[in-house]
């Protein structure tokens, strides 16, 4: 009996092998039913919504707007300075980013292309899904907008970069800046054609979701891309559409643009939503998202005043002084100063404490300048050391559209026509009528005035260095010398360092990639 059982135990496996002798390698590949793949995921409208939400989520990681991208945009400008003990951060402002260390700039580069890849998946797969056509168009429009936005950042900061627009190739060659900008503009145009003016009344799962990109966000960014390429005619036309839409207006309180109060307000054209309540409490440093990741920002702790955060980014004395160049119509200091900078003056409080009292024992801090924008400093929190700010990042404000439109008018020869649009921004903070204070400016004089106006309105918002570079100041020895008097970090500037290096991993893994000059 034992021998009989033994025979069958040997025979049955042998028979099984005989009947499966034609097994191929493909037969051995089994799909895990617990994990979806690109081939199994894109099935219905719910999948399409989850897909586009994943494109947005790349904005919340450390490389993008959780922390790194504001640093890359701010630190090279003359409104900021950094004495951070972290060399990667301090060197950014000194135009001395090393290729050997990808911290901050390399993390941002990676995250932009994660966002682009996710957008490309939506663009490739959603057209084949059977779903509500209006919702499909909105999802595709957002994917084009987001791809344009990520690519805008990549081209703007790194100059010659890959421009992947499909999923068929694993490697994408480096493109010229002109090719990169052309794709950015094409993406925003496609987005504008597909997106609604608002999400009120859509009747879909995106009903009333004001934080999603709409038609005018796409048009505004398309105008900005044209402006950065000195195509003032097309830029003017784009900004004119946003202004004529009547959908936007400046908020009465300038500071409402940088706190949790009045988020997604009438001035907001596009902003990134952060929240202390959404998601978990873990920080989204990077990599594959985890279920416990929160949706909070580390900007506040990074820029926070001494004793309330890391104080890695501070305003310059130049910025502080320029706020005093012109008083309001009732003889007061420009109110944007107190919304932008903490400093020693009567009535200045931070985190529920009087500034002078808080720093009384430290003369250096007592006479220093600290960042006020994007701080949870009204007393509801003791400090920023939990790394979890819920303040939305305002990427595009209506004030910016008004100022960029005025710039286009001036560059196209209509200097007088620029006055009213600049004055809309000035009037909010009660500054005198520019036409009376500085009447009949020449085009060159107006250029300088716009530089001053933008410096104060958008300080520490990531616009100033973009302005410096696109205006050609870094190619003008007189302007560079002037910038050195305003910000000592410009003493180490050299031509070519207006862009960040291409990360070494990209150079190594993408054949033919050329490093930016001077690196």
The helix content, as a percent range, equals 40-55%
Compute the number of structural domains: 3
Largest beta-sheet details: 2 strands, antiparallel
Briefly note the structural class of the backbone.
mainly alpha
Alpha-carbon Rg, integer: 26 Å
Q: Kindly provide the name of the CATH class of the largest domain.
A: Mainly Alpha
Shape: globular
* Binned strand content: 5-15%
The averaged pLDDT comes out at 93
Unreliable spans are 1-21
Give the number of DSSP strands. Answer: 10
According to CATH, what is the topology of the largest domain? Serine Threonine Protein Phosphatase 5, Tetratricopeptide repeat
Give an account of the 3D structure.
- The chain is mainly alpha-helical.
- Helix content is 46%, strand content 6%.
- The protein is built from 23 helices and 10 strands.
- The protein starts with a helix and ends in a 10-residue tail after the last helix.
- The protein has 3 domains: 208 residues, Alpha Horseshoe (Serine Threonine Protein Phosphatase 5, Tetratricopeptide repeat); 123 residues, Serine Threonine Protein Phosphatase 5, Tetratricopeptide repeat (Alpha Horseshoe); 94 residues, no CATH class.
Could you write a compact summary of the structure shown?
With 519 residues, the chain is mainly α. The protein is built from 23 helices and ten strands. The protein has three domains: 40-213 and 477-510, Alpha Horseshoe (Serine Threonine Protein Phosphatase 5, Tetratricopeptide repeat), CATH 1.25.40; 229-271 and 392-471, Alpha Horseshoe (Serine Threonine Protein Phosphatase 5, Tetratricopeptide repeat); 295-388, no CATH class.
């Amino acid at each position: 009996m034992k021998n009989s059982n033994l025979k069958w135990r040997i025979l049955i496996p042998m028979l099984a092998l005989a009947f499966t002798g034609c097994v191929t390698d493909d037969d051995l590949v089994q799909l895990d039913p617990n994990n979806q793949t690109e081939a199994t995921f894109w099935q219905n409208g719910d999948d399409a919504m989850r897909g586009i939400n994943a494109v947005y989520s790349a904005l919340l990681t450390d490389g993008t707007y959780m922390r790194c991208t504001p640093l890359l945009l701010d630190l090279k400008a003359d409104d900021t300075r950094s004495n951070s003990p972290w060399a990667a951060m301090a060197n950014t402002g000194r135009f001395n980013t090393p290729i050997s260390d990808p911290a901050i700039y390399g993390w941002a580069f990676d995250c932009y292309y994660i966002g682009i890849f996710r957008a490309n998946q939506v663009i490739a797969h959603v057209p084949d899904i059977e779903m509500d056509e209006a919702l499909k168009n909105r999802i595709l429009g957002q994917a084009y907008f987001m791809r344009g936005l990520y690519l805008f950042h990549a081209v703007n900061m790194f100059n010659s970069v890959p421009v992947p627009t499909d999923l068929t190739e694993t490697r994408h060659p480096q493109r010229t800046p002109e090719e990169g900008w052309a794709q950015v503009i094409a993406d925003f145009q496609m987005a504008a054609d597909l997106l609604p003016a608002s999400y009120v009344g859509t009747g879909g799962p995106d009903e009333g979701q004001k934080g999603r990109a709409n038609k005018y966000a796409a048009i505004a960014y398309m105008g900005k891309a044209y402006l950065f390429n000195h195509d003032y005619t097309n830029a003017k036309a784009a900004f004119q559409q946003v202004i004529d839409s009547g959908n936007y207006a400046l908020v009465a309180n300038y500071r409402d643009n940088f706190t949790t109060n009045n988020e997604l307000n009438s001035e907001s054209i596009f902003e990134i939503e952060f929240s202390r309540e959404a998601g978990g409490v873990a920080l989204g440093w990077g990599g594959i998202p985890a279920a416990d990741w929160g949706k909070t920002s580390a900007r506040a702790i990074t820029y926070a005043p001494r004793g309330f955060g890391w104080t890695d980014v501070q305003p310059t004395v130049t910025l502080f002084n320029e706020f005093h160049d012109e008083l309001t119509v009732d003889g007061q200091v420009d109110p944007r100063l107190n919304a932008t900078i903490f400093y020693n003056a009567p009535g200045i409080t931070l985190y529920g404490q009087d500034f002078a009292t808080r720093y009384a024992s430290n003369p250096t801090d007592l006479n220093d300048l600290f960042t006020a924008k994007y701080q949870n400093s009204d007393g509801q929190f003791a400090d920023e050391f939990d790394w979890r700010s819920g303040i939305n990042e305002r990427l595009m404000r209506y004030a910016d559209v008004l100022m960029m439109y005025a710039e286009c008018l001036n560059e196209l020869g209509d200097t007088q026509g620029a006055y009213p649009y600049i004055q809309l921004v000035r009037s909010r903070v009660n500054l005198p009528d520019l036409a009376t204070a500085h009447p009949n400016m020449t085009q060159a004089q107006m250029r300088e005035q716009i530089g001053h106006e933008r410096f104060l309105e958008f300080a520490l918002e990531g616009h100033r260095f973009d302005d410096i570079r696109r205006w050609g100041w870094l190619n003008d020895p007189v302007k560079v010398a002037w910038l050195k008097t305003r910000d000592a970090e410009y003493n180490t500037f050299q031509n070519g360092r207006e862009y960040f290096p291409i990360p070494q991993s990209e150079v190594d893994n993408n054949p033919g990639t050329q490093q930016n000059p001077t690196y």
